[in-house]
Write a structure and sequence with these properties.
Strand content: under 5%
Helix content: over 70%
Largest sheet: none
Number of helices: 7
Structural class: mainly alpha
Distance between the termini: 39 Å
Number of strands: 0
Shape: elongated
């Protein structure tokens, strides 16, 4: 009898659910957004006025407008950044499986450790900064190249 779900699909789905649970626990424990004075102020200013400073990201301010200014809360931005962190952790697991070999336990360990324990990942996810949303794009670029 064939299994109902492909084992590879079950692995990725299980890892996804585990990462979402880990990120969700951190969000429930701490919904406090943080500001990095120059950068965060520039992105929030772009979100409110539409003016883009010449030395900052030209997209992220509009992302902040879409998920935080229009709803009236930074929780949407923190949720988006948590989702980006999950995607980055999945890309990390895929890269580990591709480069080190078929060691799923190692890939799960590193992905969960990065998404749930790595201090800089947790810190940057709280800041109103473009880095967390740019990380999955960078990870995808590195994985493809």
């Amino acid at each position: 009898m064939r299994p109902l779900v492909n084992p590879l699909l079950r692995f990725w789905l299980g890892l996804f659910v585990l990462l979402v649970a880990v990120r969700g626990v951190w969000l429930v424990l701490d919904w406090t957004p943080m500001l990095f004075l120059g950068d965060s102020a520039s992105y929030i200013s772009t979100a409110r006025t539409g003016w883009i400073p010449p030395d900052r990201s030209f997209v992220y301010g509009y992302v902040v407008r879409l998920v935080a200014v229009w709803p009236g809360s930074l929780r949407g931005l923190l949720s988006l950044q948590a989702a980006c962190s999950v995607v980055a952790a999945l890309l990390l697991a895929a890269s580990i499986l591709e480069t080190i070999g078929r060691r799923p336990a190692l890939a799960v360990l590193f992905a969960v450790a990065w998404a749930g324990l790595e201090p800089l990942a947790l810190l940057w996810e709280r800041y109103v900064m473009a880095e967390t949303c740019a990380l999955p794009l960078f990870g995808a670029f590195v994985s493809i190249v």
